[in-house]
Specification:
Order of helices and strands of chain B: EEEEEHEEEHEHEHEHEEEHEEHEEE
Distance between the termini of chain A: 26 Å
Oligomer: heterodimer
Radius of gyration of chain A: 20 Å
Distance between the termini of chain B: 31 Å
Number of strands of chain B: 19
CATH architecture of the largest domain in chain B: 3-Layer(aba) Sandwich
Helix content of chain B: 10-25%
CATH superfamily of the largest domain in chain B: Nucleotide-binding domain of ferredoxin-NADP reductase (FNR) module
CATH topology of the largest domain in chain B: Rossmann fold
Strand content of chain B: 25-35%
Radius of gyration of chain B: 20 Å
Number of strands of chain A: 10
Number of helices of chain B: 7
Largest sheet of chain B: 7 strands, antiparallel
Bound molecules: FE2/S2 (inorganic) cluster
Shape of chain B: globular
Low-confidence stretches of chain A: none
Structural class of chain A: alpha+beta
């Protein structure tokens, strides 16, 4: 699979970002029905799903190069976006091996890994990287192994240590997050870092999800989708950065909502790591404006219905209150009231002009 | 991305004693084997006559780029058939289907010290832990309980790590468990593998001495043994006996019933089955308290029965 990377995108200031037709059609649209409610929507992370975004262990798309550059920029300003506690060194190497092997297997045109015992050679063609190092020896890499490899991957990653029947967030690379902070959550248990989520706790969602995740086995990863909305295609909506992006929320008008308001979907993946027995979370964010998504007729109709009927406490929790009415009004033009098919698939192969 | 099955080829078989064999497996396809960490086990599918058994065996050495998995299998008596097959029929070169390694008995990097206690063939995962922990330079102490006639054999298996902190004790009374647990430094984790009675004794003693739960670890293969019972299949007819050392799901699978499963640990909900008669003993984390109380559903991967008979909608 050869991907044409867009290299000049920006996720801040002048916001140069758009999805090609192919990228829209492969978007992991999160709503399988016209109505949204929390569920323990975990499923095995098998190859193949409703769109191409589910085809590989770690999805790489046309935004890869630009997203890696954006990450570099965030880390330059704030190195604490990547922290791993000292006892997680084995999990770091586990992560490096998993990501390198997956990328080399799934995208052989772009990534290559040669292993000669512990002496490895890694080639990342899109980023122009070629490094030789000794697996297990951190000094042979320019960064610690977890930081090294997650600088070359799209999406955030966290490392969970499993002990006392719980998961502890003991490391992460977090630069594209939806308003949470690694520095703040580091060392917390599963329930602690999720904090108060309306309705979900009463429904026992987190208890069930934790029990499932504790049992994720090596070689049997799991996945789920989560979503929120973001004004402008901004990847770094961190609490640290709130003064920069918070005011964006007040800028939505009926004239600009279609192109400024973005659906932000997280494809979350969960991998058991073999040496450390830790659990790697991949939190891969996808952004598309609501007008881009509405080019898929089914998604336009459905997005309108989901936002219109979303329960008030959920809208508040996801921070949509300020612009929800404007968005619903705008989306109503794409909803002719026709029924939609179940599931998230776009149901078309090419976009209408 | 999901890798469930691997084809293994038997590379070597070595007889350690009349009842113990060491088996070395390699990949039958030439693809590299996944990492098998200390504490991990693999499930092998064994075809014994017209029966299909799925038995789990601990790796006795960490496997990370070595290209092989090593196991020790004891001939048990009476066996469900698996160990007799391994001892009497398995030959070098044979190909076996199996799962990738799964680790329910890992060591904990936080531990100040690791105390390993084995009984009989329960030494197998502890051999892997000892090798890995010694290589990492961690503080570790091992005590192996063995029948008098097997002391020499286990001493020999442990020879590469011989020292004051690796001991083999002959006979049931060979080890003063209370004294051993009492003299451990704070922050020690204890790992026990062996007969259920030994694991219960170590766990009970540690709890009585005030050890936190999170520092007591026992090997279980995720198995869910208990009193035997019988399952009657309402739709397909027939009865399946669930033995004390197998799960209801394993018993169904062995009987050729196509039962769905995913996590095999009572968490995902995949194996949900309707109960028509009998009283389930719920051990899962999936059903809600009300669903459990209703007695209408059961998760066969972990749960069992309080009654002698369970009638399932299968
Ligand atoms: S297989 Fe997952 S609950 Fe039984």
């Amino acid at each position: 699979m050869t991907i044409a990377f867009k290299t000049g995108e920006s996720f801040r200031d002048d916001f140069r970002y758009a999805n090609s037709d192919a990228a829209i059609l492969r978007f992991p649209f999160p709503f399988g029905e016209d109505e949204y409610m929390y569920a323990v929507n975990l499923e095995p992370h098998f190859a193949g799903g409703a769109t191409d975004a589910f085809d590989t262990a770690f999805d790489v798309d046309e935004h890869y190069v630009s997203e890696c550059r954006e990450r570099e920029m965030v880390l330059r300003q704030d190195p604490n976006r990547c922290i791993v506690l000292p006892h997680m060194m084995q999990a770091q190497w586990d992560t490096l091996e998993l990501i390198m092997e997956s990328l080399a297997r799934d995208y052989p045109d772009h990534f290559q890994l040669e292993r000669d015992g512990r002496r490895w050679t890694w080639r990342n063609r899109p980023l122009g990287i070629e490094d030789r190092f000794t697996f297990g020896m951190p000094d042979t890499l320019p960064y610690e192994p977890f930081e090294y490899i997650t600088r070359q991957a799209q999406g955030d990653f966290t490392l969970q240590d499993q002990r006392d029947g719980n998961l502890y967030m003991d490391g992460g690379m977090v630069t594209t997050q939806a308003d949470w902070s690694l520095e703040f959550d580091l060392g917390m248990t599963f329930h602690e870092w999720h904090g108060p989520v309306p309705l979900a706790h009463e429904m026992g969602i987190f208890d069930r999800a934790l029990q499932y995740l504790l049992r994720v086995q090596y070689g049997h990863p799991a996945r789920r989708l989560n979503w929120t909305m973001t004004v402008n295609p901004r990847l770094d909506t961190s609490p640290e950065n709130y003064p920069v992006w918070g005011p964006d929320r007040t800028t939505i008008t009926p004239d600009n909502v279609g192109e400024r308001l973005h659906l932000r979907v997280e494809l979350q993946t969960f991998f058991r790591l073999p040496r450390s027995n830790a659990l790697l979370f991949g939190i891969r964010a996808y952004l598309a404006s609501i007008d881009e998504l509405a080019r898929v007729p089914k998604w336009g109709r459905r997005l309108h219905r989901v936002l219109r009927d979303l329960r008030e406490e959920l809208a508040g929790y996801k921070g949509l209150t300020r612009y929800r009415d404007i968005a619903v009004e705008h989306l109503s033009r794409y909803d002719d009231g026709a029924p939609t098919s179940p599931g998230i698939a776009p149901d078309i192969r090419t976009l209408p002009a | 991305m999901i890798q469930r099955d691997i084809a293994y080829r038997v590379r070597a078989i070595e007889s350690l004693s009349p009842t113990l064999k060491r088996i070395v497996l390699e990949s039958a396809t030439g693809d590299p084997l996944p990492v098998g960490a200390a504490g991990a086990h693999i499930a092998l599918t064994l075809k014994c006559g017209d029966r299909i058994l799925r038995n789990s065996y601990s790796l006795i050495a960490p496997s990370d780029g070595t290209g092989r998995y090593e196991l020790i299998v004891r001939r048990t008596d009476p066996s469900r058939g698996g160990s007799h097959f391994v001892h009497d029929e398995l030959t070098v070169g044979a190909v076996l289907a199996g799962y990738v390694p799964h680790n329910l008995f890992p060591s904990f990097s936080h531990a100040r010290k690791h105390l390993l206690i084995g009984g009989g063939v329960g030494i197998t995962p502890l051999l892997a832990h000892l090798a890995a922990l010694r290589r990492e330079g961690a503080r570790v102490e091992l005590h192996q309980l063995a029948a008098a006639e097997e002391v020499a054999l286990f001493t020999q298996l442990l020879a590469p790590w011989a020292g004051d902190d690796v001991q083999v004790h002959g006979g049931r009374e060979g080890l003063d468990l209370e004294a051993l647990l009492s003299r451990q430094p704070l922050g020690t984790h204890v790992y026990v593998c062996g007969p259920a009675a030994l694991m219960d004794r170590v766990e009970g003693m540690a709890v009585a001495l005030g050890w936190p739960d999170g520092r007591i670890h026992r090997e279980s293969f995720g198995a869910s043994g208990g009193e035997p019972f019988t399952v009657r299949l309402a739709r397909s007819g027939g009865e399946v006996r669930v033995g004390p050392d197998e799960s209801m799901l394993q018993a169904l699978e062995n009987a050729g019933v196509a039962a769905p499963s995913l996590c095999r640990g009572g968490a995902c909900g995949e194996c949900l089955t309707r109960v028509l008669e009998g009283e389930p003993e719920h051990r899962d984390h999936y059903l809600t308290a009300e669903e459990k109380a209703s007695g209408q559903f059961v998760m066969p991967c972990v749960s069992r029965a309080h009654s002698d008979m369970l009638v399932l909608d299968l």
